Please model this.
Amino acid sequence: MRSNRRGRVRRQHVIETALRSFAEHGYRGVSTATIAQEAGISEPGLIHHFPTKADLLLAVIEHYEARSIELIQEALSASDGSYSGALLALAGSHEADPTFIRLFTVLAAESVSPAHPAHEWFVARYDRVRAEIADRFREEQGRGQIRGELDPETLARQVIAMFDGVQLQYLLAGGQLDLVTPLRALLDSYR
Model:
């Protein structure tokens, strides 16, 4: 039982190390040997947990996604109860720790190529996130929080484009731009 716990802890440490490496260098810019060295284990030890580099990448982005879902749930709890408020809280948390947005931005750009191991994951994620946001906006329309004449599908695409775009600008500006203000302006325009 103790070795299983130690294995889970080591696996988690490798995922977090790989997350930082992929965020900094992209999938193609870092080797499993480098990640293993940074994680303080041998490359065969890394391969024991993740047989291929693609397996490691998918574990990292699944970890990213789980953390994003956790953050949005925390943001929903901490916000005024609206999805718009949760999105603003999420943007604020990304400003505080840009590691995840760096990972997402780098990997999303790389995954445009159908040959990238995360291509299908990103296609499915964007489809799912667009549908989830549109559903949340429909709910807010039903409560009178968003104007009824607006198309929730279009709003979802606008929010995703804004969110991803301001995060890219934030990274390029070395963290000197704020993520929340432009997103708030867009969301306020829906009322």
In short: The two ends are 54 Å apart (CA to CA).
